[in-house]
Give the backbone structure.
Amino acid sequence: MATPIERWVEEQARLMRPDKIYWCDGSEEEARRLIEIGICQEKIDGEPVFYKLNHNLWPGAYLHRSHSTDVARTEHLTYVCHSDKESAGLNNNWMPPHKAKEMLRKLSDGCMRGRTMYVLPYMMGHPSSPYAKACIQLTDSSYVAVSMRIMTRMHKDAVKRIGNRDDFVKGLHSLGDLHPERRFIMHFPDEHLVWSIGSGYGGNALLGKKCFSLRIASWLGYQEGWLAEHMVIVGIEDPAGNITYVTAAMPSACGKTNLAMLQSALGGYKVWTLGDDIAWLNVGADGRLYAINPETGFFGVTCGTSMKTNPNMLRTLKAGKFFPTLFTNTALNQDTNEPWWEGLDGPVPKNLADWEGNSWDKAQGKKAAHPNSRFTTSLYNCPTLSRDFDNPKGVPISAIILGGRRTDLIPLVTEAFNWPNGVFLGARGGSETTAAAAHQVGVLRRDPMAMLPFCGYNMGDYFKHWLNIGKKLTHPPKIFSVNWFRTNEKDEFIWPGFSENIRVLKWIIERVNNRIEAKETPIGFVPYLKDLNLEGLNIPENELKKLTSINMEDWCGEVKEIKDFLEQFGKHIPEEIWRQYQALAKHI
Ligand code: SAT
Ligand code: MN
């Protein structure tokens, strides 16, 4: 008798009609074979899927070039198909499930003809964690199959684990014809199903990542009493050797990966990495909040990554312990066969191919690497990997940091008065946009908890859920906001950022451990300058003041915008959030 997985795979194969079906086991040997296939057989637009890079300098590294229209998440083509529109909320595109499936079935009819269907069994979370989920993804892309091996715990044990159940997490992925108008990323939360066609890009195609671990998982968490969040997880070790675990939410390309593996500029402090993108948060029996990272890899932005901004990332990319490391849409140094991107250390190589493979000429004014070019590499390559990474229970969280990119208004660091005030702080959060998603760059977008594109249900209900989780915590983490991006009159960043951010983390863990006082303002507690270690930074006094002071007159426009933003969610916004809003607004 066929198992539910086998029946499901056969059903999809009848629709998509691949030439072959191949069940992956997640082994290294298999990854090597898939890469060989990607080099020699599989093609995208007539080009190989992988190019081997210089393994003396970048062990186990390969370059992948995606279709030139397929370089970022496509939020306008991403849908969350609850049975009713209200459940999806204004924060999601919505279509009735039967209509979405009818459309997807048409697009998928025969879409794998001439290709191989890879069956990928994988776990999100450590297999012995009570919070882990067993999943199956189908794909016709060797790049996706190899990437999923890096990003998840891919192993045939996931098949055993699912056994005869049919409620396993399902991902259907096909490159389709890569036409931008026939590209859809559809979620069916009640069936634990993601169906994605027409894109091979990370967040659209590695379905364990944003699609499952955030959109579907946030909905599961809403029903089951936990949180799926777009957060870094790190342990901060102080000079006495105590480790304080914190999570941090930031929209894409706000320095989240840099924070995850920060090399401390302050002696005696160390940051241990547990994750750079996703945290699943559960209330422990002791009333504390516990975090696991369901992923096992980094899928990070290359541009700007250097020995100055993120030395541990470069060490990770060159470690070659866990095979392979992939580069997507970087430039290529044709003399040395190395990947290259804007911001990498050293002089610009003379003989570069750009991210599309054309010979690059600086005079044309185009970037050589795509601004959203990426690396995919295992966390096990990371020299700062926390020894608790594989702890099935997760780590207890003492602080939640919510960040954004704001050149104005938002202080360097603020501590919320309490959990509900922290939820409001998250709800009103915003960030100036970057190149990680396909939209206009540099405009302010409200992005609560950095979850706007990833919350798989009505955002108003999501705030309610956060408030409810707070009620279950007898020892809730403190909630903070950070902003590394304030600028001075000359449009320069005031705060040096990167490894200097440890100074802010130090203040946060001292607050968490009740070691220092802070100044109360209408938006929360901010540091007294004497409590921030600023030794050796040389930031002018007036600019420092700007980083930590709040002028309520400047907040007029902000408060109005917050109201407009929240009002869109109508009756779904909890009373408590409006109470928090009123408490802020009365200061204006
Ligand atoms: O969405 S991706 O996972 O492709 C990258 C990101 O935006 O964090
Ligand atoms: Mn992300």
In short: The chain has a mean pLDDT of 96. The first helix runs from residue 4 to 16. The chain is about 25% helix and 25% strand. The pocket of manganese (II) ion (ligand 2) is lined by residues 230, 252, 277 (CB under 6 Å).
